[in-house]
Structure of Thioredoxin domain-containing protein:
Amino acid sequence: MPSVHVSSQKAFSDAINGQKLCVVDFTAAWCGPCKAVAPRFEKLADQYKDVVFLKVDVDENQAIARECGVTAMPTFHIYRAGTKLEEVVGADIVKVERLVRQHASSGGSGGFPSSGGRVLGTGAPAPRSAGGQQGPQSNYLLWGVIGAVVLWLWWNKEDPSHAKL
């Protein structure tokens, strides 16, 4: 099913508030990167029949773009039942494909929430994990142990009795 070009606030609102996963491409006629990713976006629309794919021209629908906080093109939003699950700013169509695959397979009914859940008592979105990626802090322990061993070896270099193991 090809993507749907949004022509009104009501059509946009109806689509993102539906129960189906909804992928929105905020685009502009003058945007080169938007034109470059358009064929792959259409291919996704053909591939995922149970997902709604929208194209919003930001020049024709400035109010929608402003309401959604779009400041760069292309920008992609993924919604389910009125909740924005994901945002991709820029022409990273590979990331969009991965997110569509991830959220389309989650189905949105039963099981664990695809959006990461909510903080109990507040309704705020739960913080996302780093997905197994480790930052520079994970190396502090390793460097600390290496430093301690080097220091111990240096400290005990004069006393051969400690060197016998």
User: Anything to note?
Assistant: The first strand starts at residue 4 and ends at 5. Helices lie at 9-16, 32-47, 62-67, 93-106, 138-155, 160-163.
